[in-house]
Amino acid sequence: MNIKELNANISVSDQLLSSDISELAIRGVRTIICNRPDGEGPDQPLFSEIAKAAEEHHIQCHYLPVITGKVSDDDATAFGKLLQQDGPIHAYCRSGMRSTTLWALNQAKQLPLADIVATAKEAGYDMSGVAARIAGNSGEMQALKSYDVLIVGGGAAGISTAASLLARNKALSIAIIDPADKHYYQPGWTLVGAGIFTPEQTMRDMASLIPRGADWIKAAVATFNPDSNTVTLEGCRLIKYQRLVVAAGIKLNWAGIEGLSETLGRNGVTSNYRYDLAPYTWDLVRNLKGGRALFTQPPMPIKCAGAPQKAMYLSGDYWLKNQNIKNINIEFYNAGAVLFGVADYVPALMEYVKKYQTELKFNHKLVRIDGDKKTAYFETTTGDGSTEIISREFDMIHVCPPQTAPDFIRSSPLVDDAGWVDVDQYTLRHKRYSNIWSLGDVANTPNAKTAAAARVQAPIVAANIIADIKGDHLVAKYNGYGSCPLTVERGKIVLAEFGYGGTLLPSFPKWIIDGTKPTRAAWFLKEKLLPPIYWRGMLKGKEWLVKPVMSDEA
């Protein structure tokens, strides 16, 4: 928490944690305002968690979520009304920028514009774009800077693409836009939830990973303006580009399940899909001696479709080896109709379903959780085609939340009808804007949304952008490759590797790793080799085993 005071009555900061509330109480804060929508980041506590901690310290807590860069006059008015609450008041969002913008717009009729800008600047926030908006000159704004390639998103896909581009042409001017301070190796969270990795092993400072030669614009994108080749950042700032790469990731929609936000991290409710909750998964697993453990999977698309199963298998393995499994009922509730989408891997997985005495429930979608009663509610389809709600009590439940494209993507002109960035599935080039490419979780390509997919896609996007700059008609094509190392037990993995249409695309000959069977070699790959390959190879532009091949566009 980095607190900045705007005046004697209001301060702002980046994302709060529940543990920060006691410090705010010591400072005398009596009202907290949250301006960040739930689900923006993988390490973001939900508002309900902050509100609960605030209540314990007798601090009022208000939820006024604002989509990044889309601060409206109505939002500013609502914020102004909250400023009438008991003070001192503390407002927060991802970085403090939205909260400061709300304050600046609200103060426009009370303070000279120069004072507003100066106060915000002293706190570390650039309000020059907001000043133009207040003055009524937003239509005349000039882009702050122009880049050969602008990359939206500093996750696995975005950083890898930047590194691959610079490996091909160090003279390119490239910027990565991302407001996050931390970067996460999210495939490692399954192993955190099984007590194999620590959370810290999966995290690095973002600044340490930005490729040399690329700028880092630490801000959030508000809107895309593809007709003028610009993007608008929070604070109404403009950045111009020659070519754009959209690698904005995916949004975890915790609010999509009623009651989930209020009980996450307690009452036996956990998820490996959040950095701070994966350790709680391990606490629940090792302390459960008997009862019912539920594992859920929402409708597609989700990132790493095997992750809900991975949690189930590793938990079952621990209980089996500690001789508790006879006292624990394991149940897997899948909104889909099959255990895994590529049939070749199902026989091996079913052996472990039987080994852990797991009860499979297909076409069951988690719709509500009552944490206090430790009861989950599922929507299922009956034989006559109608739906009904069934309930199931639990001692532990691992939840995979429903997922969508980020809000600022879904509201942009770049998307298809489902809200994902609309690209050609082979070249990853946008279908309507020829100087835009997209990859990773946010693209509408029909492949598994995994880090392994981004590892293959990034060099393809880089090669195709370089070809476009040169006017070359040769292109690299993506075959839909994705990989899901299914951790069926501690020490063995079913290494699922496949492309479009479920075509098997193994990286190794069968005598090294037979992906359709559980192997120790695949576990060694997952635990020991893939993390350094990620940190030292993929994010550094080392295209090991994934160097693209150029061919005629036809």
UniProtKB/TrEMBL annotation:
It comes from the Bacteria. Residues 147-267 form the FAD/NAD(P)-binding domain. InterPro entries: BLH_phosphatase-like (IPR005939), FAD/NAD-binding_dom (IPR023753), Sulphide_quinone_reductase (IPR015904). It holds the Pfam family BLH_phosphatase. Signal peptide: none annotated. Residues 4-109 form the Beta-lactamase hydrolase-like protein phosphatase-like domain. This is TIGR01244 family phosphatase. It comes from Zhongshania aquimaris.
